[in-house]
Structures are given as structure tokens and as C-alpha cells.
Specification:
Jelly Rolls, globular
Length: about 120
């Protein structure tokens, strides 16, 4: 099998839209995604899936309903447990990697102008 080497920072840096993850790989039943984020996404939850955030560059705050927010810097990782309502916020442009099951909807059951379908996330820019 010939899998390409992927520079996560380069792939995320080349994205033009914020909060629009792109799939850059797959591991069994999960996708590896990168995104460029800035501002606020939306309060949402993933009822049946955990969601891993890894900050590649910058700073990300993940607000968690009923809990203290989590502050992540470059190299930091956090897993939002399934069912926990959360809201990612980046005061400045931030590059992230996400690791999610293929069934994970971008903003859970919430739908906003920032919500992206899996088909959109699979596109190549």
C-alpha cells in the first residue's frame, strides 16, 4: 500500500475557509482531518463519538458545558467525550488536527452556516 506522507501544518495552512475541516487520512473507521479556525464554531455535541483535537499552531479554547474551558497550545491534545456539549474558540487564527469516527457529524445535531457535510470535508482544494 502506498500512503502519501502528509504535512499536517502545510495541509491546514493551505485551507482558505475557516471552520471547514478537510480529510487528509483515514485510520480504520476514523478520519484524520485538518482545519484552519478563527472565531467561534458553535455549541454542539456528538452523542455517540469522542472527538480528538490536536493544536498544530496557535491557541484553541474549548468551552465545555458545565465544566471549565480547556486551553490548548501548539502540541496540546484534548479529547471531548461523547455527549459533552462544547464550543471551540480561537481568538486568533489556529491550525488544528481532528481525529473522529467517519460517522461524526461536523456540528452534531446543530446546523449553522459553518456546518460542513462529510462530502465537503472530503473535497480537495
Amino acid at each position: 500500500m502506498n500512503n502519501p506522507v502528509v504535512s499536517l501544518i502545510s495541509a491546514a495552512s493551505q485551507l482558505t475557509d475557516t471552520w471547514s475541516p478537510r480529510v487528509v487520512g483515514a485510520v480504520d473507521d476514523a478520519y484524520v482531518k485538518v482545519a484552519k479556525v478563527h472565531g467561534t464554531l458553535a455549541w454542539h455535541a456528538h452523542d455517540d463519538e469522542d472527538e480528538l483535537f490536536l493544536v498544530l499552531k496557535g491557541h484553541l479554547r474549548i468551552e465545555l458545558e458545565g465544566m471549565d474551558a480547556v486551553e490548548l497550545n501548539a502540541g496540546d491534545m484534548y479529547v471531548v467525550p461523547k455527549g459533552v456539549r462544547h464550543n471551540p474558540v480561537a481568538e486568533n487564527e489556529c491550525l488544528i488536527m481532528l481525529f473522529e469516527r467517519k460517522s461524526t457529524l461536523h456540528t452534531g445535531r446543530e446546523s449553522t452556516d459553518k456546518t460542513r457535510s462529510i462530502e465537503e470535508q472530503l473535497q480537495r482544494d
